[in-house]
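Figure 3 (text version): structure tokens given as input.
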């Protein structure tokens, strides 16, 4: 049942040689480069912002990092327990993005961006979480469209992201303050000169 749905959705989404070249190019950008919003936004939240909000922003960045780490561990475990060939490895549909023929379930790209989006929905603002969820859906669509993932790989990534955020919240309640103090001390040591010059926040 699920596998039949997986194939049906894949054939509905997957590009063909007759698909618009501009759409394939946009999907290539979304599939490979759009994920860079994760480290860029995390760095921005850590280094800059209103002085009254910097502590909250940095705690958010640490919680998100914890959630992504947990989610990727869950993802690796699921990929080992439930290996699944990528569409092009099964000679299904069309492939427009070079990728190693490793296990596709769940998607690592999807896991990272969906964990990021769920984290912002839960711990930041609804509007930021919604924008990141739209970004996540765009990345998910692009990787199915280009033929390197199945739709259910992306659903699995979303569920893993939710689980990663729930686990990170539990870990934060137990260890969060100590982790924050340690990371803050390391940051101040490593960024002493930029902090002193006012380039980044203390």
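Below: residues designed for each position.
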């Amino acid at each position: 049942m699920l596998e039949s749905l997986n194939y049906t959705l894949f054939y509905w989404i997957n590009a063909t040689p007759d698909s618009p070249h501009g759409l394939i190019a946009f999907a290539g950008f979304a599939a490979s480069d759009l994920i860079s919003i994760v480290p860029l936004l995390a760095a921005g939240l850590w280094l800059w912002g209103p002085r009254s909000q910097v502590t909250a922003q940095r705690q958010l960045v640490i919680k998100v990092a914890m959630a992504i780490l947990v989610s990727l561990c869950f993802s690796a475990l699921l990929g080992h327990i439930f290996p699944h060939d990528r569409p092009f490895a099964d000679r299904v549909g069309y492939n427009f993005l070079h990728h190693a023929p490793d296990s596709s379930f769940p998607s690592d790209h999807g896991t990272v961006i969906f964990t990021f989006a769920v984290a912002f929905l839960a711990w930041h603002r609804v509007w930021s979480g919604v924008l990141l969820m739209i970004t996540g859906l765009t990345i998910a669509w692009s990787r199915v469209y280009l033929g390197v993932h199945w739709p259910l790989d992306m659903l699995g990534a979303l569920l893993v992201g939710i689980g990663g955020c729930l686990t990170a919240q539990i870990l934060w309640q137990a260890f969060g303050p100590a982790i924050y103090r340690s990371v803050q001390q390391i940051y101040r040591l490593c960024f002493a000169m930029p902090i002193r010059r006012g380039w980044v926040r203390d």
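The two ends are 55 Å apart (CA to CA).
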